[in-house]
Each structure stands twice: as structure tokens, then as C-alpha cells.
Write a structure and sequence with these properties.
- The protein has 15 helices and 14 strands.
- By secondary structure, the chain is α/β, with parallel strands linked by helices.
- It has 2 domains: 2-203 and 395-410, Glycogen Phosphorylase B (Rossmann fold, 3-Layer(aba) Sandwich); 206-392, Rossmann fold.
- The protein has an 8-stranded mixed β-sheet, sandwiched between helices. The protein has a 6-stranded parallel β-sheet with strand order 11-10-9-12-13-14, with helices on both faces.
- α3 (111-119) packs parallel to α4 (134-145) and α11 (323-330) crosses α14.
- The radius of gyration is 21 Å and the shape is globular.
């Protein structure tokens, strides 16, 4: 059977949604003929702006871990963009959906991708993630071809940019895969029929993290887990992910625990760079690692950072699930997350980690210091997180088995 996977970007672009589709493709290729389709954007800006980073043209048709990756150019010419918006507006109207061409605002707009999804051999199309336009490209192609369509939206209920009228269009997919009961409730609130929603969590390649060494990380950063109290953040360095709150907490932590060091992994936003300069001498306690410094999700420096840290802190405003929390647990580390419904569902306060109010740097600083001051509690919480992975099957192999079941069910 031919399955088309559709995401906004693909490796070497790095984010949770792309990695989800990458691991599904790699694992499920033993059961299906997988064709991967995405834009040629390398960063988020490239999804809708000519100044964004792009994958080199010689990699537009690429083979990565035996997966055929088809990268489609993002339309840049105003006439081409207008034509695509009109094409989708007609589609939404024909389907009776509450949306128009503005549903494509997040990008990528790509006529090339639309034509490819209409022409490529396919029995089913599976897309991620909302609110990016490739989700609607997949839906349009599936409807016109009369084949099933599945979406994993990663709907972030607390983020205002997701609260748009055309979220109800997700209900036109044959199956909607949510990561939590909290996400499922938010989707129902936006008009997605409950009977089409199936909860499937995220996963982790726990063995790769458990056997990782911190040696390369120590050599590159100069940080030593036997000497330094390392706090790790790994994600897009912006306000939404809590990176700004972490920056604001750093001087407060250092006042009480001078041995603390902060490792910040991920692409920086302009706000992050600005706020980083504002924390003054505390910047000496911060090590910044960007995607350009790393070779992907399993880069030895990144794996070593999870192994070397004492605490993982990513107090996001919104999360569908949060793969990085599982990566920390795989290394036996406690996590600090915001007290939002999806995180409260993922773990109870004190059972694998702690919750803090979003954008409360004082509460975050106190929580980090208390954990670093209590190695026994850190170890106990981290061990409980590792147990959760095993007990609840929070691995990519487990996720792939459940998604495969969805595919086989819908294909009869």
C-alpha cells in the first residue's frame, strides 16, 4: 500500500512535528511504501518568506534513511500565491468548510506540492501539523482523489494563533490523531467530531538516550556534570516555549546557586537574542547551541546534554505533548513544565517532575534551585519518568504500532 506523509519541513529541519513524521516514516517503511512530501524550507521563516533558509536544490529529491523525501519549492511570486489562495478558497467552499485563502497564511503555499499529492501513487495521505498550509494541501488532494486522509494536528490550545475559525476544517479528515485528552477536548470544541479523534501519544528512542555519553558534550561546552549543576532547555528559543522565562530566571538562580549552568539548545528568536543580552553577567552561565552546531535529533552533543543535565526545564505556554520531556525521562532526569492541561495530564506534580505557572520566572527559579539542592528528589523523579516510558509504551516503536493500526483499519 502507498502512504503519503506530508509535513511542512523535513530533516535537516528540526522540530517535534517533523521528527514525529520522520520516525513514523522510518519505522513504517517495512509495512508500507512511504512517500514523504514537504516544502523546501529549512526554518520557519522559509515557509512563507523568500528570506528564509532553504534546503539546497540538489536535495529537493533526497533519500534519508531509505525514505524518499520530495521537497517542493514554496511559491514566492505574488501571482502564483494569489492563484493558490483562490484554488483553496474554491475547495473550502465546495466542501462547505469555514475557511478561505487566509487559511494558508502560515505557509507553505506550494502549487508544486499540490500537484505532486494529486499525482503520486497513494492509498492514504497522513499530514501534520496545524495551522500550516500543507495540512490543507493534503486534505484537498485526498478529497479530490477519493482516498482517506489522516491528520496529526498537534493543536496547542493555549496558543492564540491556533484559535482560528478554520480549525473546524480538521473535522473533514477521516481520522484525527491527538496526543492527549486535553488536545482532544480542544478539537471537539472547534467542531471536530469526537468519533474521528484517536489519542496516540508521542514517543522516544529511549535506548539511544540511555546509552549516550556526556563526554563529547563536556569537551565541546567545557561543562562537567561532576562539578556544574546543569539545567537544560531544548526547543525553539522563544516566548511560547518558555525560553524567555528561563532567561529571566537565570540571574535569580545564580544568586542562590552560583554553580548552576544553563544549556539552551534550539534555534533562537530575535526576542531571545535581545533578552539574552539583557541578563548581563549572568550570560557567562549560559551555553547556547543552535541547529547549525548539531547534526540532528541524535547528535552526540545533544544526547550528552540530556545525559549531563541535572534538571530539564521547558515551561511552555502550550504543548500538544512535548517529545523533549520524554527524552529527559529516558536519561532519568526530572522535568519542569508549565501547569497547563496537557502537561498535568502527562504527569502529576512531583511524579516525574514539577509544574510551574507559565511566564513566572520567580516560581521557575525557586523550583530549579529546590531541585538542584535535593539530588535525591531529582533522582527519584527522574526514575519515575523513566518508568512511565516503559509502563505506558511511550516509544516511537509503540507509536508506530498504533498508527499502523489506524492505517490498516481505515484501509479495510
Amino acid at each position: 500500500m502507498n502512504i503519503l506523509h506530508v509535513s511542512p519541513r523535513y530533516f535537516p529541519a528540526i522540530s517535534g512535528a517533523e521528527f514525529y513524521m520522520q520516525r513514523l516514516s522510518e519505522i513504517l517503511q517495512t509495512h508500507f511504501d512511504i512517500g514523504m512530501h514537504c516544502s523546501d524550507a529549512l526554518d520557519f521563516r522559509g515557509l512563507r518568506n523568500a528570506t528564509g533558509k532553504r534546503v539546497p536544490k540538489n536535495r529537493n529529491t533526497d533519500r534519508i534513511n531509505n525514505i524518499q523525501v520530495n521537497r517542493h519549492p514554496v511559491d514566492q511570486e505574488p501571482d502564483a500565491i494569489l492563484a493558490e489562495r483562490e484554488e483553496y478558497a474554491r475547495f473550502f467552499k465546495q466542501e462547505g468548510l469555514l475557511a478561505d485563502g487566509s487559511a494558508l497564511d502560515a505557509g507553505p503555499i506550494s502549487a508544486d506540492m499540490r500537484h505532486a499529492l494529486l499525482d503520486a501513487p497513494a492509498d492514504l495521505i497522513h499530514a501534520t501539523c496545524f495551522p500550516y498550509a500543507n495540512v490543507f494541501t493534503a486534505l484537498l488532494a485526498a478529497k479530490r482523489r477519493g482516498i482517506p486522509a489522516i491528520v496529526t494536528p498537534f493543536y496547542h490550545a493555549e496558543n492564540p494563533r491556533y484559535d482560528v475559525p478554520w480549525a473546524s476544517a480538521l473535522g473533514s479528515f477521516d481520522r484525527v490523531l491527538s496526543c492527549s485528552r486535553a488536545e482532544s477536548r480542544a478539537l471537539v470544541d472547534h467542531g471536530v467530531p469526537a468519533g474521528r479523534i484517536f489519542k496516540i501519544t508521542m514517543g522516544v528512542d529511549a535506548d539511544r538516550f540511555q546509552v549516550a555519553s556526556s563526554d563529547v558534550f563536556t569537551r565541546v561546552t567545557g561543562l562537567d556534570p561532576s562539578r556544574d549543576d546543569i539545567v537544560l532547555f531544548c526547543g525553539f528559543k522563544n516566548y511560547e516555549k518558555g525560553a524567555i522565562t528561563v532567561l529571566h530566571a537565570i540571574p535569580q538562580v545564580l544568586d542562590r546557586l552560583p554553580s548552576a549552568r544553563f544549556v539552551m539548545i534550539g534555534p533562537p528568536s530575535a526576542q531571545y537574542n535581545f533578552e539574552c543580552r539583557k541578563i548581563g553577567p549572568a550570560r557567562k552561565a549560559v551555553v547556547n547551541l543552535n541547529p547549525e552546531n548539531l547534526s540532528g535529533y541524535f547528535d552526540p552533543i545533544k544526547l550528552g546534554a540530556f545525559k549531563a543535565c541535572r534538571v530539564y526545564a521547558m515551561p511552555s505556554r502550550s504543548e500538544a505533548f512535548g517529545i523533549a520531556y520524554l527524552e529527559a525521562w529516558a536519561c532519568g532526569k526530572p522535568v519542569v513544565a508549565s501547569s497547563i492541561p496537557a502537561m498535568q495530564e502527562l504527569f502529576e506534580d512531583g511524579n516525574g517532575g514539577l509544574h510551574v505557572p507559565f511566564d513566572d520566572s520567580e516560581a521557575l527559579a525557586t523550583t530549579i534551585v529546590n531541585l538542584l539542592d535535593d539530588p535525591g528528589t531529582c533522582e527519584q523523579m527522574g526514575a519515575r519518568g523513566r518508568e512511565k516510558i516503559d509502563q505506558e509504551g511511550l516509544t516511537w516503536d509503540g507509536v508506530a504500532v498504533r498508527v499502523r493500526g489506524i492505517y490498516e483499519d481505515i484501509l479495510g
